[in-house]
Amino acid sequence: LVVWSHYFGGWVLPGGRVEADAAPSCIQIGSLRRRTGLETNMARHLVSGPYAAASMHDFHAYLVTAFDGEPPQRAFERPVAWFSRGYLLSVAPLKLRALYKHVFDIRDET
Questions:
Q1: What's 18's DSSP letter?
Q2: Single pTM value for the model
Q3: What angle do CA 59, 64, 65 make, to 5 degrees?
């Protein structure tokens, strides 16, 4: 599931900035809801680490394995779509492709 990001100028995985006083798992739940309208039922933490793309400092990747709702074609004025992993890696903003490949590789190892 991907959303259009005006900030990055391309298709991205749903996400958001982690504030210093917020738990990353809470940010994951809120970001998915805000960006897609879906409610997380179950998610597994995959990886965290530093990443210097634009203003991103640390990232936390989660695999959402259960959710409620059906993603609309647009959520909060942003297009939402289902892409295959390979297609996302070919159209994601260049500065995010290495990060996404890293997350997908970790997902495959677990």
A1: P
A2: 0.80
A3: 150
Q: How far apart are CA 5 and CA 79, in angstroms?
A: 9
Distance CA 95, CA 100 (A): 10
Q: What is the pLDDT along the chain (110 residues), one digit of tens a residue?
A: 999 988 889 999 888 777 778 788 888 888 888 888 889 999 998 888 776 554 556 778 889 989 898 877 765 667 888 899 999 999 999 988 988 998 899 889 87
Find residue 64's DSSP bridge partners. Answer: 43
CA separation for the pair 95, 27 (Å, rounded): 22
The sign one gets for the Cα dihedral 37, 65, 10, 96 is: positive
SS3 42: strand
